[in-house]
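Notes on consecutive records. When two proteins share a document, each keeps its own sequence and its own token line. Never mix them. Below: protein one.
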Amino acid sequence: MDGCREIPVTEQVSKRKIQIMGIVNLTDDSYFAPSRCLGTDGRSDMKKVLGRVSRMLEEGADIIDIGACSTRPGSEPVGEEEEWRRLEPALKAIKDSFPDAVISIDTWWVSVVEKAAGLIGPFIVNDISAGEDDPGMLPAVGRLGLKYIAMHKRGIPKTMQSLCNYRDVTGEVLQYFREFAERADKAGIRDWILDPGFGFAKDTGQNWQLLRELDTLRTLGHRILVGVSRKSMIYRLFGITPEESLAQTQVLHFAALERGADILRVHDVAEAARTIEAYRRLM
């Protein structure tokens, strides 16, 4: 009975939808300097923004992720008004220049989400707080019918992204998203993506354990986004800088794909695309 045949691994991999999310930072303090697209006058540098977006789309990015506030540990939030001041002209320019581009916005402010929806229409909300930092976020996303990325940072305030003690980091992340699923369902959010939150409230060992056991999170039935690009779990381990960590980043991307990652959030789109192609061929 062909309808009950076991699907070969090669067929599963060839049909699997793997996407690349390219990072654009409208900041002056993100940990990887080449991703910064904020001018010295504090305004978005539109030449840098459009140039970076154009290059990433040409290299194979499926999603353009735009953030106007650095979320690296120790960074200071800029506030919702400043976020929108930076975002508004960039979103307009990107939508005008690349009308078919899929955009996600890295924010935890519901006011930013509502303004952006009015400006550019549907987009993906990439919320590092999973709705915890602004109580109005989940209801607004449900009402607007937007796609949503929920990240785990275990309720750590955005100004205090300190490390947490875990008995079992993977188990606690799994339980966190089981509980989040209930909150999302109540808010009418059906289409959400899971981000384990590498680098947030986790030390180096916990980050590596979580990546090693990533396939455990697939039991939740939601797509998984992995953001490990050039992060401290790499550069601190090897005593190098973010700028020197491209090779090791691709090793981790390959490992994430093996364990079920569906979306790679990256600074380097061309390299990530080659890593995905190598993964498909080897599988």
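Protein two starts on the next line and is unrelated to protein one.
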Amino acid sequence: MSTKKVPLRQCIGCGEMKSKKEMIRILKTETEGIVLDATGRKNGRGAYVCPDMTCFQKAVKSKGLERAFKMSVPREVYESLEKEMERIGK
């Protein structure tokens, strides 16, 4: 019997490879802009970050979102994502 492969994703903050279910997906859509995708099922370009504020802050400092989405990210977007991360995160 073969075992099912677990999808791994890299955190844009710390760079660790973790299971997709352990991570929080940040999504870039054409209509909504950049939002958190708690379900992990919405359509759009996604980047993953650990559910930890230190990883999110590292991603902001190293411009991980800007590299992942290949565009500049306004400060307001970072602030709204930070508020959502505090609500969801541990």
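For the record: The mean pLDDT is 89.
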